[in-house]
Amino acid sequence: MTRHVAFLILLIASSLYAAMRGGRPEQIGAATLFGGAWASVFAADPTRAHFRQLETGILIIDMVLLAIFLWLAIRSTRFWPIWVAALLQAEVFIHVGQIVVPAAGWKAYMNALAVWGWVAQIVLIVATWRHRQRLAQQGSDASWKGGPASRPPIQRG
């Protein structure tokens, strides 16, 4: 099995698990990672050899994904989106490295970008599993900061 097929299986499995068993932040994260992975496949410039120079389309996608996960980190009650945002920031830095040192080698550029996608999928699986644990232990798991569900109940009398 090639690493592409293995990643596709992991991508589909983690996305389905988060979509079916996760809270709203996990579902948004799954859709974002799934969409970003597929968009990246089509964003690579087909008129030239891939990863031989800066992949501008993939850089733009990574920056959009980073923005979405930063938003999730700020708005949701979850800690895991900041981890995925950090992984995406590492990917953006790798693109910057390709600009600064274009002779570093296309395989290093390609593999350095790919490794973070694997880790992000694993973070999503663990995040969804933790959400299920909180639901089982506490009966609820507030998804968003500042909403009525995230405030403690008012004590009267």
Structural notes for this entry:
Helix content is 72%, strand content 0%. The longest helix is centred in the last third of the chain and has 33 residues, at 106-138. The protein is elongated. The chain has 5 helices and no strands. By secondary structure, the chain is mainly α. It has helices at 3-21, 24-43, 56-75, 80-100, 106-138.
Fold topology:
Layout: H1 3-21, H2 24-43, H3 56-75, H4 80-100, H5 106-138
Helix pairs in contact: 1-2, 1-5, 2-3, 2-5, 3-4, 4-5
Summarize the structure.
72% of the residues lie in helices and 0% in strands. It has 157 residues and is mostly helical.
Number of helices: 5
Summarize the biggest pleated sheet. none
Question: Which stretches are poorly predicted, pLDDT < 50 over at least 5 residues?
Answer: none
How many domain units?
A: 1
Overall number of strands: 0
